[in-house]
Structures are given as structure tokens and as C-alpha cells.
Known about the structure:
single chain; alpha+beta; four-stranded antiparallel sheet; 5 helices; 4 strands; 42% helix; globular
Amino acid sequence: MLMPTLARADDAADARIIIESQIDAFLSDDATTAYSYAAPAIKQLYPDESRFFDMVKRGYQPVYRPGNFAFGRSKAAADGTSIVQEVIIQGPGGQDWTALYSLERQPDGSFKINGVQMIKAAAPQT
């Protein structure tokens, strides 16, 4: 009964390590390493690391150049094939975002990032 819970905790920890490693690669302008965390479906859309890196720079500035970021909730598929990890990010200019990272399990058991949905945080009420 404990094994699935432990596996999910390990999966969530793995997802956080992968996301943080990719963000670190973006901050270092290391396109090769950042691209290495992308799932095969993303690599089909962006068949080389420079196209991938340019897409992230243009469309995902908060991920490319985050200020502070923190991990929120994670949710794993019941069959263990995927996980969604919430990341709270302060983007350029101080705007807060929620990034929902989708990761899918690969045949070797590792996870790769299959997409990121960005949600702009509402402005604080004054």
C-alpha cells in the first residue's frame, strides 16, 4: 500500500529536479542542456536546440529569465505515465505567473518536459 505513494513522491521530486535543471540551463544560456529535458513531441515541433531556445525566449520569458520561483502542487496520473508540476514564477518586471509543467515518463523510466502552460497571476487588490 505504501509503494505507490513513495513512487509518486519520488516522481514529484524527479519532476522538480528536471524543471529546476532546465531553468538553470536557461539562466546560463545553455541551449543544449535546456533542450535535453524536452520530450520527444516537443523535439518534433522544434527539431534543433536553437529553434527550441528561440521559442522559449519569445514565448516563455518568465521561464527563460525567472526572478524567484517556487514549486507548488504536483499531480501524477494514476498509471504513473505523467505528472503536472505547478511552479510559481516571478517573471521579468516583477509579474507573477503560474507555470504548469507537464512531464511524461519515457521508456527508460525518466521524465521529460512535454509542455508548459503559463497563467498570469491576477494583480493584487489595493
